[in-house]
Amino acid sequence: MLAPVLLVTARFLQGIGLGGEWGGAVLLATEYAPPGKRGLYSAFPQLGPAVGFVLGNAMFLLLDATMSDETFRTVGWRIPFLASAVLLVVGYYIRMKIAETPVFQAAMERQERSRVPFVDLLRSQPKVLLLATLSFVLAHTLFYTVTTFALSYGTTTLRIDRTTMLLAAMLAVAVMGAATLYFAVRSDRVGRKRVCLASAVLAALWAFPLFWLINTRQPVLIALGMVGGLLCFAMLYGPMGAFLPELFRVRFRYSGASFAYSASGIVGGGISPLVATDLLARTGSTTAVSLYVIGIALVCLVSVALLRETKDADFTDGLRAQSPAR
Asked: Of the candidates 129, 80, 136, which has an alpha carbon nearest to the alpha carbon of residue 269?
């Protein structure tokens, strides 16, 4: 009984860390970015999932191939987790050394800092917060459908070799990383909304081909299905690094962006794989899962359509112009 309790506790602590870290990382990137390049700068924090997924699974595959099954189960699986402690040291060093952004410093000088940011956010921009959260659910749904549910479906239901599925997923995530950077930069040119709307439409169109290709049990086609799914993800995830912060005012931008990201993750990352598993168990087919993804894509499409374009919006709330120090 202690094992699941410890696992849930660890995941809860991980969530606290991620909830604070993601918003801070993209805000530092976007608020330091020169005009017209907020998408590009925000893309670098967005590369974390791709790099982490590939490195983590590559290490697991290497250890699994070089250790006996008994050794891997008792010792080997712990090594990647222990090795990640190096990243904690690096992250802590960066956080301690980096300076606050000029935008935030200007807000502090004008006493624009909020005492209770989330309460002020709910009072000032509740509609934006709701739409931003709903628009980002699709990103989490796509990522975990491909990297969690599809892996489980392929290995347990279709009896595909786990290494084959992992290699296909790693290839898809590697492509996703490059695409995240591309679409973030693209959003600087054509706008955040246009790229995000295209992602929602393509995700709905790819919901059925994703599983049709996996059902062939052919490694190349499995990889193609996963690559397509995560390209749709990257098309939404890339611009969102700049889009979410741009939607909120400086005084509660950190809270707004972080809440939208984390709350959407509860549905897309936490609930969606459970729903997909249940739908598969009830129907014995992935048709219902594809329809579920299409439903989430439609919610994203409507939510993004109702949000304003922010590519050329003033990101400082006029603070730089009004502050004598700047």
From this structure: 136
Nearest to 232 by CA among 140, 128, 130, 169: 140
Predicted pLDDT at 323: 38
Q: To 5 degrees, how large is the angle CA 46–CA 255–CA 39?
A: 30
CA 77 remoteness from chain centre: 25
The domains of the chain, with CATH numbers, are 2-322 (1.20.1250.20)
CA distances to 60, 71, 76, 104 from 64, in Å: 6, 9, 8, 47
Mutual orientation of helices 2-32 and 219-247 as an angle, nearest 10°?
Answer: 60
Tens digits of residue pLDDT in 87-100 = 888 888 877 877 77
In tens, the pLDDT along 85-136 reads: 888 888 888 778 777 766 666 666 666 566 777 888 888 899 999 999 999 9
Residues 6+ apart with CB under 8 A from 157: 280
Supply the angle between the helices 2-32 and 102-109 in degrees, to the nearest 10.
80
Residue pLDDT, tens place only, 217-241: 999 999 999 999 999 999 999 999 9
Q: What is the DSSP letter of 217?
A: -
Q: How far is CA 244 from CA 177, 261, 312, in A?
A: 19, 8, 14
Residues 6+ apart with CB under 8 A from 184: 39, 40, 42, 43, 46, 238, 239, 241, 242
Question: How much is the pTM?
Answer: 0.86
Q: How far apart are CA 150 and CA 259, in angstroms?
A: 27
DSSP classification of residue 114: -
